[in-house]
């Protein structure tokens, strides 16, 4: 696989500083039941990296010590970690909001019986990846049969109350472009998703998040192989919107890898661009120090979060500004 970091490090991206930490985003490991072309984590069934019990315990200490309101769990497929359910229970017992970044097909995997019910019982917010509302496009990106399994999972979540008004169970969907292009307008695409999923499958959800593909890991390597890397970077830079700098996710989020090391975002984690500080900052360091006003490590991939309507773990940044 082609490495992209050498192509990204020389940058003119504006300098940024952190604000108060609010969200702990934790990667529990890179093992996944799917292998997706756009995956910036390069996750898959053969990955063996997994967070140990000592680091899991540190997560709960940091949440309490720092008074953080949100634990955002990702992977791979975070649900494949044997400590996933225990961590969720304990975080919820600390009155912490928990987000599960779910690929949907995990709900039908052997050993994951009762997962949907567990998520509903713990009132976990589900952020579910569904790259399109049509079978052909989803299966092309994620493998044959993925769309049908995803639809079944969404219907199961709806049966439990997810996405329905007054239930308190939030179901958000995630769209990634098929290739080297920016996502379409989030509001317009959300309306398309809502119409088509309701019409054909009776599925409802709360919001659609459109997320720009990052020129790193598997997707970045594919761009290089196809001779599209430079063109894609030009696209991101030409569409840079300075107004998005105020709401990029690295301002109030810290990303934690499966070993407990800290990064400004999930993308920096996969590029091994550690959080600023002495040595290699770790979760245990958050027990005794704050991150306010620390510089954020930037490189050319940061244009992916600031191009056009912007992109974050919560979808388009411009749409966030328009609704506040």
Give the overall average pLDDT.
Answer: 91
Largest sheet: 8 strands, mixed
Give the CATH topology.
TIM Barrel
CATH class: Alpha Beta
Order of helices and strands: HEEHEHEHEHHEHEHHEEHEHH
CATH architecture: Alpha-Beta Barrel
How large a portion of the residues is in β-strands, by DSSP E?
5-15%
Number of domains: 1
Number of helices: 12
Characterise the protein shown here.
The chain is of the alpha/beta class. The chain has one domain (5-322): TIM Barrel (Alpha-Beta Barrel). 33% of the residues lie in helices and 12% in strands. It has helices spanning 5-8, 53-66, 84-93, 115-121, 135-142, 146-159, 186-201, 217-225, 229-238, 266-271, 303-306, 317-322; strands at 16-17, 23-27, 70-74, 97-102, 125-129, 171-175, 207-210, 253-256, 262-263, 295-296. An eight-stranded mixed sheet has the order 7-6-5-4-3-2-8-9. A two-stranded antiparallel ribbon has the order 1-10. The longest helix has 16 residues, at 186-201. The protein is globular.
